[in-house]
Hints:
Layout: H1 3-10, H2 24-35, E1 46-51, H3 54-63, H4 69-72, E2 75-82, H5 84-92, H6 105-128, E3 131-135, H7 143-149, E4 156-166, H8 181-184, H9 195-202, H10 207-220, H11 225-241
Amino acid sequence: xxxxxxxxxxxxSCRKFSDTPITNEDMNAIIQCAKQAPSxxxxxxxxxxxxxxxxxxxxxxxxxDNQPFIKDASHILIFCNDMSKWDRAFTLFGAKxxxxxxxxxxxxILSMQDAIIAAQNAVIAAQxxxxxxxxxxxxxxxxxxxxxLLHLPKYVFPCCMLVLxxxxxxxxxxxHNRYTNKYIVCENTYKELTDEEIGExxxxxxxxxxxxxxxxxxxxxINSDFFKEMGRSLNKAISExxx
Length: 243
Ligand SMILES: Cc1cc2nc3c(=O)[nH]c(=O)nc-3n(C[C@H](O)[C@H](O)[C@H](O)COP(=O)(O)O)c2cc1C
């Protein structure tokens, strides 16, 4: 273990921030670290929206499933997977001819990987600077509203959002537990867990307690309105990237 692994193991999502705004110097360092993330073909298929406007933060607080702490963050970074710039450059420089392959769902997924990997670099850089972060998955909901609010052209999708702020004086939240390797890591090829192992993995106490918790979890996540809206938005976004 070393300073970097200690940092990684101490990270937890932060939803309460100090009132002190993040300095430009710190934000620039975070963005520089985000951009240094690995990227397929070094194409950097993303655009980072650095949201500082108070009204825009308030709107996002509402459109992202009414989470008030979003507006209290010093900064919001929205990572958009973006093939718009490359698509235009291919055309502008005559690389792409009539009838050649156009942008499609595969580009959506590849560019999304680029954007999310860059976001995670930002998270770790921020943590090292005393700046807490929290991902907000709900930016992938309300596609039409976010497209208009953020002026997003075709082939640009807001795939992940981070709220950032200096840690408050209050004690920092300790890191959450993770599943043990037995349930997460396979050597070489995939090994399907037995029903018994699935039972053990998700057990939170007695059988009845686990049944009740699992039902509440399912209803709160998979079966919830926000999850259905996210699915609708994502399917629509992907369909807009289809030829
Ligand atoms: C894709 C993604 C979306 C998330 N969306 C939200 C969110 O909308 N609101 C929130 O409070 N936390 C959100 N989180 C944070 C998770 O709840 C958090 O990472 C998880 O509970 C594990 O806790 P930890 O980050 O403190 O280890 C999101 C995390 C990820 C990776």
